[in-house]
Amino acid sequence: MNSNTDIKNKLQECQQDNDNWQLTTPVALIIFNRPETTAKVFAAIRQAKPPKLLVIADGPRLNHPGEAEQCAAARAIINQVDWQCEVLTNYSDVNLGCRQRVSSGLDWVFDQVETAIILEDDCLPHHSFFRYCQELLIKYDDEQRIMMISGDNFQFGRNPTEYSYYFSRYVHCWGWATWRRAWKKYDDSMELWPELKNHGWLHDLLSHQQAADFWSGVFQATYNKSNPWDLVWEYTLWLNHGLTILPQVNLVSNLGFGSGTHTTMKDSPLANMAVEPMNFPMQHPPIIERHIAADDFTEQTQYSGTRTTKTPTKPVWLSPKCKICHSDSHYFATAKVLQKYDVNYFQCSNCGFVQTEQPYWLQEAYSQAIAISDVGLVYRNNIMADITGKLLFKYFNHEAKFLDYGGGYGLFVRLMRDKGFDFYWFDRFCQNIFAQEFELQENAQANLEVITAFELFEHLTNPRQEVKEIIDLCPNILFSTELLPEDNPRPGQWWYYAPHEGQHISIYTRKSLEILASNYHLKLYTNGKSLHLLTERENLPQDMFVKLTNNKLRPPEKQSLLMRDFNQVINKKNLNTQVLNITKSIKSINITQIKQPIIIIDGVFFQLYNTGIARVWRSLLAQWASSEFAGHILVLDRANTAPQINGIRYRSIPAYDYNNTEADKQMLQKICAEEQGKLFISTYYTTPMETTSVFMAYDMIPEVLGSNLNEHMWLEKHHAIKHASAYISISENTGQDLNKCFPDIPLESITIAHCGVDPVFSPAAENEINSFKHKYGINKPYFLLGALQGYKNSILFFQAFSQLTNKQSFDIVATGAGSQLPQEWRQYTAGCTFHGLQLTDEELRLAYAGAVALVYPSKYEGFGLPVLEALACGCPVITCPNASIPEVAGEAAIYVNDDDVTGLAEALCEVQKPTVRNTLINAGLDQCKKFSWIKMAEIISQALVDATLLFLNLREINYIIFPDWTQPEDKVGLELQGVIQTLATHPEHEKITLIINARNIAAEDAEMFLASVVMNLLMESVDINNTINISIMDELGDIQWQSLLPRIYGRLILDNEDEVALDQLSGSKLESYQLDSLAQM
């Protein structure tokens, strides 16, 4: 911030004679595809000589021929800077559009500088414009109400003020200046607009219905992304009660009418307006006050046609008191509840509690007591039953009575009774299905030990009153509700608001729960996220939930109430029937649930493309969906583009943006943490920050064929390769190329998983083929091609085809992207018909089956899926022996070199012979049997599970031990010391890894304990450096144990062992060894 003295001094410096004045403010220039106007504006900037020039440029539009050259010509002008100037550029390779390009570009500008003068490529300023902007940027630096300085005057000869400028509410952006402090308020999402609209904000602001309706339509279209960035800026100023400085004379002329992206009316009165100089020293208005008359003229002549006189007023909402601490709450956000109601959310200024406005929609929201989207109901109840059982058994009287308050369908009560806990049910809104006959009775209320209330508190309309009702039943409440994260997200930024369901109307913070506890003289224990205990007990350990999380509490050993309950129900209903074998029937129920380890799969490729890689992942997910492995994976669905496959679990996340990769990495890491992901694999080169990742290599085309590796896509690919800890390749050749390009990756560490072929690709009947040919007007036998351009090398076919003496007897069919025949290739097809088709899979099958041959002269393939599909359809294949193609085609194809025109012409003749065709067809059908999606899915799933075990650093000889960490430290320490010393001095110590099971101790505690053991060994002159690996292992999932056990040489027997952990080895053939027997092994 500047002091008054600083401002006065700077203004005195600025107000010297024009000849001595110097521009010190950075200039930002926004350009696109108009080199002629860009050159004129650049000449004006060159005359001003700014010390820093920041240039923003959009990329060419794909559907505008010649635009790429125009964009390049415009950018070339910037190279003409010939004065002392720092030039910074922000050029986009793709077309972002006016709104995104300008707004993101100005975000970049104000990341670099505090103030800037901003010109577009068609806005030609008078030379005095620069001094006018600079002086006012200095004068109003600290005045928050002033948000921009414009060089435009649209009063058409009217003289609204005796001063050099006046203040306006309107944004004019044809030459302007602003501060970082102002631009940071720009909100492209216009997040508050729906609420403002619903509360009549514009009517209060403009005091005229016609003007309010006009601007409401403008801002609604802008909110819907139909209008450019400057209307968002207009909205931003109005929302923040901001003002624009407008000059008494017009300082900028717009040259772009007729050719601009948005200024297309050549006869507009605003086009090519004359400019006049600003006189210095300027005459400053004595007070900051909007010029109402000038604004009325602007509104009337340029916008709604009306005059408005009321000054802006701030939108007002009735802010309720906090339902927890009765402090003032302030407006927080608005969300669309039940897809129909615009509902306001308010946040407490004291405790942070978030509540909705009065929830008038609840009857509709509870038309189904359990939300239909609550797919995690069974999984969550299983998890909470496990946690609750351990906690009650350890810290409360587990023989007492318990109540599940808000018990839903009664599933949790049933689970707890099955575990041996005498639980009862209560719920005002939901039908009891699974716990019938165990509803809360009057005689049970006085004897309750603990009440559970899972996923209830967020539903409470009056939390203090309703929590008091629960406490009156029992002062010990174990409950779950997600606490508001520290970054204070609003609806739309955090899943737990769930406005589409309309039931979550109270969101808590830790402070709000502490206030609740204090109000009722209870103590709060919490894990800081979702699990909490209000209790009158003072002596519970503070790390109680940590122990639960780390499995330090043993499972309760109680007799199930299952048979007792069954007989009770039978007797009560006086049913004369035999006792059923209910235990057997329950065990036969297979409830699919999420299992550890969780593997995160980023489905980003489905957002970007629909090519062969998408087919690979669709096929893999379809195979996994019906297997146990489905319980281990979570697919990240980018912008709802992933295929929805039954049995696969998804999480919706935002679309990927190559211009914001760092934020994407941070988001992925946050998701991995929230979902407890142990491993990450991307369908296309995305990575989290820290979570272990596996890289899937489809090809190394850019590296082998010499593409520009500085493109965003390939930079991210190389980052993903370097980030990865394990690698999968879809062919031997691609794996070898990965190793050649990145020698640090050992070839033997790359898992090879060949692609399969979809069952849709199979031979077709003649009538099917004829129908296909008739549909697309194919009247002759035809050769089939894939994509034409680039490394696919299809020019070789056309050159060879032109040499055929009978070429006019054939049509040519090309499928896939880029299947249009280039004009310069038509010389090779004279007298023949070319068909460029986009086909469905079923049609592609018929195209393969009916072709004389698939001609596939590719210079490189990561796998070569079209070759395999053709073989499966009984289509002969002519191809080149490059990269992975021989792995796929084997002996079932005719091979020619990728530059051998004569050889290919001969192959085209050879494949016309019936005996050759039949031989190739039969060989192809046999060859394709070697490939299947089932096999690929099994290989990759195993590779992913193996990657979750990389932290163990397994070697050739791997031993495992199961210490009982509940034993005294000295006893455990001596045993560990003996094991490590024995292995470290073993003759083959460099081949050994020792795995230490840490099931019932925190990993950090185990590491610290192990460090002390190692220190003791060093003090005894036992050096374990460069000897054995030692790895600490917490609990593994069943699928990890299945992968790990075959790689363990044996278990070393200890005097004190974790019997619970050892149960996981029951049934395995793992050898057990006494420590003193190792020396002889």
Automatic annotation (TrEMBL):
Entries under Pfam families matching the protein: Glyco_trans_1_4, Methyltransf_23
**What are the alphabetically sorted keywords of the record?**
Glycosyltransferase, Transferase
Which Gene3D superfamilies does its entry note? Glycogen Phosphorylase B, Spore Coat Polysaccharide Biosynthesis Protein SpsA, Chain A, Vaccinia Virus protein VP39
Q: What CDD domains does this protein's entry cite?
A: GT4_MtfB-like (cd03809)
GO terms classed as biological process: lipopolysaccharide biosynthetic process
For this protein, the record's InterPro entries field holds: Nucleotide-diphossugar_trans, SAM-dependent_MTases_sf
Q: What is its EC number?
A: 2.4.-.-
Q: Which GO terms describe its molecular function?
A: glycosyltransferase activity
Q: What is this protein called?
A: Glycosyltransferase
Species of origin reads: Chrysosporum bergii ANA360D
